[in-house]
Amino acid sequence: MIRLVVSDIDGTLVPEGLDRVDPELFEIIRELKKKDIVFVASSGRQYASMRHVFEPVADDILFIAENGSIVMNREQTMSLRLIDQAIAEELVRYLRTWEGGHVMLSTPESIWIESRDEVFVSLLRDSYRMQFRIVDDLLPLCSRTNKITLYHTGGKIDAVCEKVCEQFGDRLNVMVAGNIWVDCMSPESDKGNALALIQETMRISADETMAFGDNCNDIGMIERAGESYAVRNAHPELKKAARYEAPSYAENGVLKVIRERLLGPSAKKSVS
Q1: For residues 119 and 125, is the Cβ–Cβ distance under 8 A?
Q2: Three-state secondary structure call for residue 65
Q3: How far is CA 60 from CA 39, 75, 189, 195, 203, in A?
Q4: What is the pTM of this model?
Q5: Are 175 and 166 in contact (CB under 8 A)?
Q6: What SS3 class is residue 125?
Q7: Which of 212, 190, 225 shows the shortest CA–CA distance to 256?
Q8: Least C-beta-crowded within 10 Å: which of 7, 57, 109, 262?
Q9: Domain 85-185 - what CATH class?
Q10: Averaged pLDDT for residues 90-111
């Protein structure tokens, strides 16, 4: 019996960067709660951005934010994992060298950027609805950062990630988090580890967990779920890790699977 449902946001529930989900999801979350099924929103996004998206039900769900480096429950921090200061400083200096890229540093309180590029700033402010501040220098903030991100629109984001991994993969968890983002966190920061914490705290097993994702940063989470789904538009590596395939976000695939498997009059084992 499923007792916990966890879903990625960008590329899974909505297109990359959209600041709203189908309102039907809120009703589904309320119906799940009546059945004592916990819903967890999981994302590389900042907690404040995620809470904005799920505002009507924000106190009824849990949040895995910043790719697992922060776990929140009703405004209470369940887990926070920080990057070593010396490594964070080295990483910021390295990411600054990427032509056409912009560096974004996360702390539990805010996101910080050095760039004043209008397109980048608008994306954070108007699409993701992030709480961020512009500073002249990110280095003084490296003492308390949980995630450092490279925004890069030059294409071939997998190749960009590989380059960052060559330099920092032995000291950080480096991953693609969408078609324009490479996220760097502490080695322990991962959606899968965050989900494991929630499962342990709530005494819910992997077999009682349903998970949905679309990208490589969802693999750890998918592997912690007995009933795991890659949406049809998912990265090939995520599809290999998942047991089943769900329709894409354009077809409201996550909502359809939850309705059919957990809330509808009949339940099927797989949806494709």
Answers
A1: no
A2: strand
A3: 8, 11, 24, 17, 18
A4: 0.86
A5: no
A6: helix
A7: 212
A8: 109
A9: alpha beta
A10: 95
DSSP string, 206-235: GGGEEEEE-SGGGHHHHHT-SEEEEETT--
| Superfamily (CATH H level) for 4-80+189-263 | HAD superfamily/HAD-like (3.40.50.1000)
**pLDDT of 272:** 43
Q: State the amino acid at position 32 in one-letter form.
A: L
Angle between helices 85-95 and 157-168 (to 10 degrees): 140
Q: Where are the domains of the chain?
A: 4-80+189-263, 85-185
Angle (CA) 1-59-129 rounded to 5° is 115
Place of tokens 């779920």: 225
Residue length, the chain? 272
The pLDDT score that the predictor gives to residue 270 is: 40
SS3 187: coil
6 has a pLDDT exceeding 80: yes
Contact (Cβ atoms closer than 8 angstroms) between residue 189 and residue 146: yes
Tell me if 102 sits within 8 A of 115, measured CB to CB. Answer: yes
Tokens representing residue 21 in the block: 């989900």
Amino acid residing at 258: I
Cα–Cα distance, 94 to 96 (Å, whole number): 5
- Report, as an integer, the average pLDDT of 90-100: 95
**How far is Cα 16 from Cα 121, in angstroms, rounded to an integer?**
16
CB 103 within 8 A of CB 138: yes
**Helices assigned H by DSSP within 146-203:** 157-168, 191-202
**Whole-angstrom Cα distance, residue 135 to residue 62?**
31
